[in-house]
From TrEMBL:
The active site is at E304, D390. Zn(2+) binds at H303, H307, E386. GO terms for biological process: CAAX-box protein processing. It catalyses: Hydrolyzes the peptide bond -P2-(S-farnesyl or geranylgeranyl)C-P1'-P2'-P3'-COOH where P1' and P2' are amino acids with aliphatic side chains and P3' is any C-terminal residue. Residues 234-452 form the Peptidase M48 domain. InterPro entries: CAXX_Prtase_1 (IPR027057), Peptidase_M48 (IPR001915), Peptidase_M48_N (IPR032456). Residues 47-230 form the CAAX prenyl protease 1 N-terminal domain. Its cofactor is Zn(2+). This is CAAX prenyl protease. It comes from Collybia nuda. It is a multi-pass membrane protein. It is found in: Endoplasmic reticulum membrane.
């Protein structure tokens, strides 16, 4: 533990200039956040012309009829235009908020609100919660039109939207309520740990974040998801038998097998699993069940169980813990830095003793350009995991010595094609756009991969 603290104070010493030098942090954040937005716009412009192609890639030609391909190109084009507009629009809003000192204003607004109820500046945690909610609420208002347009115009036009206006409003209110009910205690404990542990907050805060994530794993399926969707046990029959057999052969600790009414909001389809190591739940979208044959859904589940077999969620969580650790290790240098708050328009009095939450949020904004690189790395890891899970599905026959699984690769390929066709997913992809945005390999890459896993298997046998 002491070694950890010595290393952490070394980092802090390296960054000690932050607490004294009057750096123009605001200009830095403006410049870098615009740079990220412009780069993302550039990627969209690289991708955009591909939506004008009139033929699918040769590998997919047999699977897309011309009408479907035309539809998917039109959908992709509309989505790209919308993404370009919303990216720049959101950046303009953020930029204006920064320019006019919105963060300092929100802190003061929370202070005056609490003062009305007789709570003074000594109630820092209470004021911090008020501050975060004022920020969160006010900054989400300008983006609401985007989400209304996305749901009721864009998705509607291409036949995906199943959300009604009242469901949309209910979802919004529920998610705000949920953010408040879960966010307030989280924030209170988070800030309390800083006060209580002083300079040695890193291991304590890490411990708290990990426990919070584990609690969410339990609460999410039992409390949160049922607020938005109906999960019902998957009906007895061919599909249920197939999945239960597969799970038991792999010793997957399947506790519940659900069908979810994803079609209530959208006709996009999917399947996933979650839970604690000894008790897992599988959830399949009703749309996937309607669109694919039981043996194809089984292959999708074989892929999902590949993620479990190779511990992908655990590995992802380890990477994200490392990420959180890095952020926390750098933070102390920014925690007691009056020049940081001064450059974001906070008054001299507040800047002299920076509130933890304010310093943390400003610090997060400074990290934005770095986060873009982190997300590129995370996507690359995720694409590798997808590839591993696809290979897992192909090799199941050998792993389980089950002759009837000899065509798992073909079945998965067919299911992926159906998913792509029904979701009108993009088939032509710019490599740089894909490297930056995609957590999954493209359909063409996956089909090629499945084919080569299959031929490798056959070679091994000969
Ligand atoms: Zn996957």
């Amino acid at each position: 533990m002491d070694l950890l603290h010595t290393q952490l104070s070394n980092i802090q010493r390296q960054l000690s200039f932050v607490s004294v030098d009057p750096i123009n942090w605001k200009l830095y954040v403006q410049a870098f956040s615009w740079a990220v937005t412009l780069f993302e716009s550039y990627l969209l412009l690289r991708q955009y012309p591909l939506y004008s192609k009139t033929e699918p890639p040769p590998a997919l030609a047999g699977h897309f009829d011309p009408e479907v391909f035309k539809k998917s190109q039109a959908y992709g084009k509309d989505k790209a235009k919308f993404a370009l507009f919303s990216g720049i629009y959101k950046q303009c809003i953020d930029s204006l908020m920064l320019h006019y000192g919105f963060y300092a204003w929100s802190w003061n607004a929370s202070g005056s609100l609490l003062a009305r109820f007789g709570y003074g500046a000594e109630y820092e945690i209470l004021q911090s919660i008020g501050f975060v909610f004022i920020l969160f609420f006010l900054s989400s208002i300008p983006t609401q039109p985007l989400s209304i347009y996305g749901t009721f115009v864009l998705e509607e036009k291409h036949g995906f939207n199943k959300t009604t206006p009242s469901l949309f409003v209910m979802d919004l209110l529920k998610s705000w309520g949920l953010a408040f009910v879960l966010g307030s205690p989280f924030l209170a404990i988070f800030l309390y740990i800083f006060k209580w542990a002083g300079d040695r907050f890193v291991p304590w805060l890490m411990g708290f974040m990990i426990s919070f994530q584990l609690i969410m794993v339990i609460i999410y399926p039992t409390v949160i998801q049922p607020m938005f969707n109906k999960l019902s046990p998957l009906a007895a029959g061919d599909l249920r038998n197939r999945i239960e057999t597969l799970a038991s052969k792999l010793h997957f600790p399947l506790k519940h097998l659900y069908e979810i009414d994803g079609s209530k909001r959208s006709s996009h389809s999917n399947a996933y699993f979650f839970g604690l190591p000894w008790s897992k739940h599988i959830v399949i979208f009703d749309t996937l069940i309607q669109q694919s044959k039981p043996e194809e859904v089984e292959a999708v589940l074989a892929h999902e169980l590949g993620h479990w077999y190779y511990l992908h969620p655990t590995k992802m969580m380890a990477v994200s813990q490392l990420h959180i650790f890095t952020i926390l290790a750098l933070f102390p240098a920014f925690l007691h830095a009056p020049p940081l708050l001064r450059s974001f328009d906070f008054s001299k009095a507040i800047s002299a003793q920076p509130p933890t939450i304010v310093a943390f949020l400003l610090f997060q904004m400074i990290l934005t350009p770095l986060e873009a690189f982190v997300s590129i790395g995370m996507n690359a890891i995720s694409r590798h995991f997808e590839w591993e899970a696809d290979r897992f599905a192909c090799e199941l026959q050998d792993k389980l010595k089950a002759e009837d699984m000899h065509d798992m690769g073909d079945r998965l390929g067919r299911a992926l094609i159906t998913l792509h066709v029904k979701n009108l997913s993009t088939v032509w992809v710019d490599w740089l756009y894909s490297a930056y945005h995609h957590s999954h390999p493209t359909l063409t890459e996956r089909l090629k991969g499945l084919e080569s896993f299959q031929s490798q298997r056959e070679k091994k046998k000969m």
